[in-house]
Structures are given as C-alpha cells and as structure tokens.
Design goal:
UDP-n-acetylglucosamine1-carboxyvinyl-transferase, Chain, 15 helices, binds uridine-diphosphate-N-acetylglucosamine, four-stranded mixed β-sheet
Length: about 425
C-alpha cells in the first residue's frame, strides 16, 4: 500500500499536459472488440482502470498489443468467450460495457454485477431495459447478468434518467442490431460523443451523439480503425481547481476548453482568472477567492466528478457556499477527512454547507474514492505542514503520473510505501 506525502503551501506554477479521457477510453476499448479487424488507439491514458479493462478483453481472447504507454492495437477476431470474470467487474464497473459490445457482436454476453467506486447505489436497470427493448433476453441471477438474443432489432428507447453508462451500453449493442434505434433522454457527455465517433470510424451509423436524442442505424459489421481518444475533462478540471486553490498560475495543455465550461464558469465566479486558448486553458488566482453555490448535473451542467475538488476549494473561500450533489448520493465521504484538516462543512441530505476557513492544516487522511482522493491531494497542496494520504490506489485508477505532474508544477509531493518509515523521516527532514 502506498501513500502520498505532501508538504503544502506552494502555489502550482508552470505547464501540465492532460492525457486521454479515462471514461471515453473505457467505452472505446469495449467497442474495439466489436470489429474483427485491428483497431489502433492513441492517447490512451496509462491508468489502472484502463489496464484492468485491457486485461479483461485479453482474457476473453482479443489480441492486445501495447505499442507504447499511450498506444494500443486491439484485434477482436479471435474472441473465445463472452463471459467476463467477476474479478474484472469487481475492479472496474465500466467493464459492463463489454455486455453491450459482446451482445451486439455475438448476441450473447455474461457479466457479474459491477463494482467500482462506492459513491452511491448505482443501479443498472436502464442498461437492462435497453437490451431487452433491443430483443435480448436478460436474466439476473446470483449477481450475474446473462444476456442472449437470437437477433437484436432496433427499438425506440426512452431512458428514465440521464445515464452515461446506459447510453453508451445501448449504443454499443444497437450498432449491430437490425434497423433503427432511437435513444431518447440520452446523456450528452463528451465521452458519449467520443465513443460514438469511434464507432462511426469503424463503420457504425450513429447520429445525434452529444444531444439528447441519438439515432443509430444498425450495420452488419464493424471494421478496423485508427483513433485518438479525446482529452480528459476531469483531469483537466482537477488541475484547474488545483491551480486556483493554491493561488498558482498554470497552463493546462491538450484540453478542449468547451468541455471545461462548467468548471471555468465557477472558477471565474469565485474570482480566479481563466484564459482560454485553442487547446489549452490558463488558470491563475491571487488573494482569497469568494463563495458560490453549485449543483451537480449531467453535462453540460457541473460534473459530479468535479464536485469534491471544487468543494475543497470552496472550503477555503470567503463566505458560505452550498454544494448540492444530484447524481450520486454517497459523494461527500471525503468531508470528514477535510474536516480533520480544518474545513467546516456540514452535510445535510445531498447538500454540503461549506463555511470557508482561512487555511487547512496537514493531517493523516484516507482517499475514500477516485475524485475525492484527488480533492484531498489539492487540500494537502494548500495545507500548512505535512499531509499524508493513504489508499491512493483509488487515485491511480484515473490519474496518470499524478504526483509527477504536480511535482513538475513546483509542489513537494512524494509517493511512498505506507510502511516505509525511513522514506517518511527523510522527507520530513528534507522539507523541514
Ligand atoms: C459515469 C462515469 C462517472 C460519472 C458519472 C456521471 C464512467 C466509467 N463513469 O458513471 O465517472 O461520475 O458517469 O457523470 O464513465 N442510474 C440508474 N440506473 C441505471 C443507470 C444509472 O438509476 O441503469 C443512475 C445512477 O445511480 C446515477 C445516475 O443514474 O444516479 C447517473 O449514472 P450514470 O450516468 O450511468 O453513471 P455511470 O455511467 O455509472
């Protein structure tokens, strides 16, 4: 088990380059096995969730060749199994995208019910409803979802709530269904558009991704493709907030500024300065930032995956802010950890009432999930003294070279084994 040890108090300054979007890549990797020809993917993030997904598709017989850290070739022509081991599902929830992909291609798929970050109850009824409407028989027995169909037929599917996962999963299966599928009340996140663009590059016929009505005309087969994954808006947003919270000045490169608008708007509202370029944003802040109210919503609303980071910033801003989480009910578990560093936040139902304090004090804390973990790192960067964050395997699920990128911006952060007393002592001695 590893931990981050941070000596806070330095503003982040310099440049950071953002990697490919983890959540787009998870859908795209599932889609890649739907072709019998080779697919080459570029800008793949080298993070734990992606590596688990690659193992899962290798396990069912797909050929996976890692050309380099960010490029992979996948060939799905020799798939021998349509059953995904529980081991993978336990580690990454998004391996359920293989359900849609394999059901579309082989008209059969089996996966265990998904795991992932514990941020709420996360049902998958809409995925199952969609598959059934395409003509599949879906049974859920002892935690295993078994989907089978003689053939899939296009259908008119209305999603009861806006869901990223169900939109992608249904889109995958519908690509190879007979006839036309319409998904209404579809999610509009940039990674939905990226998965759709990738499928289209393989010969699928998907229109409307990025709006709330997606129209898919089924095709008989998908072919090989070369594709570069979209930049990660949550990694970018995390660095934007880190720059503002530390009163730094950071140029965040390889981003699509449009995808960051919700974060940009809120940072500007509290007094940070955000400059947009073609494929970069620069964030700087001086003095104490102000308060605001935030409600997480599906895209283009404020992303739930940015909620812990922005709440951390607001916990240091002047005045009272209210943050309402409307997507996942269990996403304030990091508040207790922040409180140990001096934050004054009260959670009532799905809202956090944040009374800004002047500063945080370093403490020994635990990352409760991926984005909350990143938020606690931001807290450590701002705090006076030393912060130790354990359970960083959550953070490694979704941030590539996180501590290295932060260190390159001038901060003092080390990754070390939690048992490694010697390195900890050395660190403390070095930072004084
Ligand atoms: C994806 C992202 C996650 C992000 C979330 C919301 C990936 C791998 N993960 O998660 O990082 O926080 O979108 O932007 O892309 N719901 C149902 N029934 C369903 C499906 C969803 O009730 O069948 C509910 C969920 O409990 C939640 C809401 O719908 O309250 C949104 O969930 P969804 O958009 O599906 O999230 P994920 O795809 O799991």
């Amino acid at each position: 088990m590893e931990q981050y040890v941070i000596k806070g108090g330095k503003p982040l300054t310099g440049e950071v380059t953002i990697g490919g979007a983890k959540n787009a890549a998870l859908g795209i990797l599932a889609a890649a096995v739907m072709a019998d020809e080779t697919v080459t993917l570029d800008n793949l993030p080298d993070v734990r969730d992606i590596n688990v997904m690659l193992q899962a598709i290798e396990e069912i017989g797909a050929k996976v060749e890692r050309v380099d850290k960010h490029v992979v070739k996948i060939n799905g022509s020799n798939i021998t199994s349509v059953s995904i081991e529980y081991e993978y599902m336990r580690k990454i929830r998004a391996s359920y995208y293989l359900l849609g992909a394999l059901l579309g291609k082989y008209k059969a798929a089996q996966v265990s019910l998904p795991g992932g970050c514990d941020i709420g109850s996360r049902p998958i009824d809409q995925h199952i409803k969609g598959f059934r409407m395409l003509g599949a028989n879906v049974n859920v027995d002892q935690g295993v979802i078994d989907a089978k169909a003689d053939k899939l037929t296009g259908s008119h599917i209305y999603l009861d709530m806006v869901t990223v996962g169900a939109t992608i999963n249904i889109m995958l299966a519908a690509c190879l269904a007979e006839g036309k599928t319409i998904i209404e009340n579809a999610a509009k996140e940039p990674h939905i558009v990226d998965v759709a663009n990738f499928l289209n590059s393989m010969g699928a016929n998907i229109k409307g991704a990025g709006t709330d009505v997606i129209r898919i005309r089924g095709v008989e087969r998908l072919h090989g493709s070369e594709y570069s994954i979209v930049p990660d808006m949550i990694e970018a947003g995390t660095f934007m907030v880190a720059a503002a919270a530390t009163k730094g000045d950071v140029l965040i490169k390889n981003v699509i500024p449009k995808h960051l608008e919700a974060t940009t708007a809120k940072l500007t509202e509290v007094g940070a300065k955000v400059e947009e370029y073609d494929d970069a944003v620069r964030v700087c802040a001086t003095g104490r930032l102000g308060n605001t109210h935030i409600k997480t919503l599906p895209y283009p609303g404020f992303p739930t995956d940015m909620q812990p980071q922005i709440t951390t910033l607001l916990a240091l801003s002047e005045g009272t802010s209210i943050v309402t989480e409307s997507i996942f009910e269990n996403r304030f578990r990091y508040v207790d950890e922040l409180s140990r560093m001096g934050a004054t936040i009260t959670v009532e139902g799905n809202s956090a009432i944040v009374n800004g304090v002047q500063g945080f004090k370093g403490a020994a804390i635990s990352a409760p999930d991926l984005r909350a973990g990143a938020a606690l790192v931001i807290a450590g960067l701002v705090a006076e003294g030393i912060t130790q964050i354990d359970q960083i395997e959550y953070i490694q699920r979704g941030y590539e070279d996180f501590e290295e990128k932060i260190r390159n911006l001038g901060a003092t952060i080390e990754r070390m084994d939690v048992e490694d007393e010697k390195s900890l002592k050395k660190f403390k001695l070095k930072v004084g």
